[in-house]
Design a protein that fits this description.
GO terms for molecular function: RNA binding. It comes from Cepphus grylle. It holds the Pfam family RRM_1. By secondary structure, this protein is an alpha+beta fold. It has 14 helices and 18 strands. It has three domains: 203 residues, NagB/RpiA/CoA transferase-like (Rossmann fold, 3-Layer(aba) Sandwich); 33 residues, no CATH class; 70 residues, Alpha-Beta Plaits. The strands form four sheets. The chain has an eight-stranded mixed sheet with strand order 4-3-2-1-5-8-9-10. Strands 11-12-14-15-13-18 form a six-stranded antiparallel sheet, covered by helices on one side. A two-stranded antiparallel ribbon has the order 6-7. Helix 4 packs across helix 5.
């Protein structure tokens, strides 16, 4: 039960991680999945450590609990389901949203609940919860690679637990006094130098191990929301729901400048800047653009675009699940914000949908990627290539191959005469 060997003075977070991972493997304490390196490590006795959460008042009082999907936290997820609490689990790497709510089938047996607590059960028995799902989390349970008795935590280095908490703050799902618990082996409780901590790092209030429960009484403030100037463009692209949160916070007047954003615009004309210019052109006065509006049907197009008229290059994106309260101006503002400027916007508010025309399939697919996870008026929008566009490129390629093969097999000296309609 000895802690991992302390890292040398001046050690980095990664040095601490490597020491803990190496010790778990070398001492025989590591458990499936292995090796534990680059993971929130599972360990011998994790289920025992998880079961001790049932002795905490903060668990018994909680009605809605967020638990990370890591293997060593499986016992906490099971305890929450057995206690009939609402269990929220973050989606893997936040690729498809923020939370999945685990919903066991009616009359679930103990064995079914055990399955629901596993990674496979999370996939089979969960429903997504979006930004406007009104989550009110009473308790947060996270995994750790290392943690100190002061409550200072080191994760596996990808920053998802810190980001999840910051996003919950931004959407009002947690409060300043919402308790945070971590489950680790005794050897993972180590001294951590305070200078290793940053203002975006999540701290913990309770540490549960196979042998003890530590109340940290941590005084260091938890993240107060998303620190946008530390968010990279790469992370924004990886986490679609982060784009929606950024859009919402910008609407309230908050500074949402990303990491390196100022220098990018100062040194070069970026694709994003060009898209901003395109949107500015697309939102000129209606008289100059030939727009028409009848009831809730609205079409706006760029009259300077010569390829809009039937050249076959235009690709259409379908936007559905638009709430009745959302106006076309709100969608246009979001398109500008997410650099998804269309050549033409066909707004069909009465049918809760819109169609966006782009110059080619690549641009359309890029727009779909950018708008994925976008929430307007309380709904997460459905964004995809319009049905008649999805296989359009392949059909055109197939026809080209057929024509080439037909021409290739013509007898020498023959001539293809154009067909004239009579």
């Amino acid at each position: 039960l000895c802690p991992a060997p302390p890292p040398p003075p001046g050690a980095s977070k990664q040095d601490v991680r490597e020491k803990v991972w190496d010790y778990l493997e070398a001492s025989g304490l590591a458990a499936f999945p292995r090796p534990v390196h680059r993971r929130i490590p599972n360990f011998q006795g994790s289920h025992q450590a998880c079961c001790s959460i049932k002795e905490l008042d903060v668990f018994n009082r909680a009605r809605e609990i967020k638990v990370d999907p890591d293997k060593p936290l499986e016992g906490v997820r099971l305890a929450a389901l057995q206690a009939r609490k609402t269990l929220l689990v973050p989606t893997p790497r936040l690729r498809t949203g923020l939370f999945n709510k685990i919903v066991p089938p009616s009359g679930a047996t103990k064995e079914i609940l055990r399955i629901c607590a596993t990674s496979q059960g999370i996939k089979e028995y969960s429903v997504p919860i979006g930004l406007d799902g009104k989550a009110r989390v009473d308790l947060v349970v996270v995994g750790s690679v290392a943690v100190s008795e002061k409550g200072w935590r080191i994760g596996k280095g990808e920053g998802y637990a810190d980001m999840e908490y910051a996003m919950m703050v931004s959407m009002g799902a947690v409060q300043e006094d919402t308790p945070v618990i971590t489950i680790v082996h005794d050897c993972q409780v180590v001294d951590i130098a305070e200078e290793l901590l940053d203002d975006h790092d999540l701290t913990v209030d309770y540490i549960l191990t196979p042998t003890r429960t530590v109340k940290t009484n941590c005084k260091r403030p938890k993240p107060q929301g998303i620190i946008w100037h530390k968010v990279s463009y790469e992370m924004l692209e990886k986490i679609p729901i982060l784009k929606s949160l950024r859009y919402r916070e910008k609407q309230t007047g908050k500074d949402v400048t990303l990491q390196g954003e100022h220098s990018d615009f100062a040194n070069a004309i970026t694709p994003a800047a060009l898209n901003e210019k395109a949107m500015a052109e697309n939102t000129r006065p209606q008289a100059a653009m030939g727009s028409a509006q009848v009831g809730q049907h609205y079409v706006e197009s760029d009259s300077l675009s010569p390829r809009l008229g039937g050249s076959g290059m235009i690709t259409t994106v379908y936007v559905g699940n638009i709430p009745p309260s959302v106006r076309v101006s709100e969608l246009k503002c979001a398109l500008r914000e997410f650099h998804a400027t269309p050549l033409r916007l066909n707004w069909q508010g009465a049918q809760h949908r819109a169609f966006l025309d782009y110059k080619d399939k690549a641009t359309a697919e890029s727009a779909v990627s950018s708008l994925k996870g976008l929430s307007l008026g309380g709904n997460t929008l459905r964004v995809e290539l319009a049905k008649n566009q999805r296989n359009k490129g392949q059909v055109e390629i197939n026809m080209l191959y057929i024509c080439q093969a037909w021409i290739k097999n013509l007898p020498l000296g023959s001539c293809v005469q154009p067909h004239v309609a009579r």
